[in-house]
């Protein structure tokens, strides 16, 4: 026994690999990246580079790789870094291998489409003997893995637990803040993707930076209303997982959600087969449904939902947003 903490990251895509790399580089914990493709994991071990997900970025020598779920039995903390809609499947597949008392951290930004529930809620149900935390906030995988300074937030059921996780995972370039608002932190991560699509539409249509700024501010108001209605904390929307991630994703071309919106705005056909994950395209309809049930108004989110579903064209959506009754901020 080394006596050091053992951390496993499940999901060998861009974000999982980046998280595993930055934690391993710090040297405080033994870190294993767990993927389901044996040949990919062997290539990562041999090459030290994930060409598909993080091209050109060297992964630390200290990082371990495995395709075998049995390795999870050594980990006190397990990060689930697969897409939102795969989190429940992953809980079913990997749950039996988790160590007693291990904490599972969902790192996806979305809402479970099958149940319209937060990922921490569906994971808590699937893994009733484990604490569930949620990691979110502004941070592109490539920036994190390159060692650029990044700050995100980790939310757990109690602040003490979140602080313990933040200390274990943070390092010189990757800093986590602690929160006990799992609802607010996760809704911020899910909704900012939808709002980034809206900002992409504005950019793709050439509607100008003033329109983008208006969408960011009014989008933040939507986020804040849904967080409050679902029992989250008002302050969370002003933090890293709300304002921070919304600004990043709505303005950076590194964002897949923004790029997807730009394609929509340019009138390019929607094509989900190109392999790019666009979480906001899934979250939009779920958020609209949730808001309707709670009598919360989310006009921008609803417009994105209708555009993606093909029931509203973009010029009409903009006209409708601009002709809503004049109200106070
Ligand atoms: N990329 C980024 O900059 C950031 C991403 N995120 C969030 O992280 C999540 C993942 O995104 P990202 O890493 O970019 O996506 P990628 O598409 O790069 O990778 C997703 C990975 O998940 C794996 N996977 C899918 N289903 C399962 C499963 N059931 N069990 C185990 N592994 C599975 C895939 O494996 P396979 O190839 O075998 O299908 C793939 O390696 C998203 O919710 C995203 O919003 C958050 C912050 C930053
Ligand atoms: O969540 C992210 C950065 O914080 C990544 O955004 P995209 O999924 O839009 O690429």
UniProtKB/TrEMBL annotation:
Q: Which positions does UniProt annotate for sn-glycerol 3-phosphate binding? A: 109, 137, 192, 245, 255-257
Q: What are the entry keywords?
A: Cytoplasm, Lipid biosynthesis, Lipid metabolism, NAD, NADP, Nucleotide-binding, Oxidoreductase, Phospholipid biosynthesis, Phospholipid metabolism
What pathway is this protein a component of?
Membrane lipid metabolism; glycerophospholipid metabolism
Residues holding NAD(+): 11-16, 141, 256
Query: Biological process GO terms, please?
Result: carbohydrate metabolic process; glycerol-3-phosphate biosynthetic process; glycerol-3-phosphate catabolic process; glycerophospholipid metabolic process; phospholipid biosynthetic process
Q: What is its main location?
A: cytoplasm
Q: What Enzyme Commission number(s) does the record list for this chain?
A: 1.1.1.94
The active site lies at 192
Q: Name one GO cellular component term.
A: cytosol
Q: Where in the cell is it found?
A: Cytoplasm
Q: Name one GO molecular function term.
A: glycerol-3-phosphate dehydrogenase [NAD(P)+] activity
What's its catalytic activity? sn-glycerol 3-phosphate + NADP(+) = dihydroxyacetone phosphate + NADPH + H(+); sn-glycerol 3-phosphate + NAD(+) = dihydroxyacetone phosphate + NADH + H(+)
Question: SUPFAM superfamilies given for it?
Answer: 6-phosphogluconate dehydrogenase C-terminal domain-like, NAD(P)-binding Rossmann-fold domains
Q: Where is the Glycerol-3-phosphate dehydrogenase NAD-dependent N-terminal domain?
A: 7-157
User: What's the domain of life for this entry?
Assistant: Bacteria
Entry binding sites for NADPH: 15, 36, 109, 141, 256, 278-279
Binding residue positions for substrate: 109, 256-257
> What does it do?
Catalyzes the reduction of the glycolytic intermediate dihydroxyacetone phosphate (DHAP) to sn-glycerol 3-phosphate (G3P), the key precursor for phospholipid synthesis.
Q: Which NCBIfam families match?
A: PRK00094.1-2, PRK00094.1-4
Entry's family note? Belongs to the NAD-dependent glycerol-3-phosphate dehydrogenase family.
Name the chain's protein.
Answer: Glycerol-3-phosphate dehydrogenase [NAD(P)+]
Say which species the protein is native to.
Rhizobium terricola
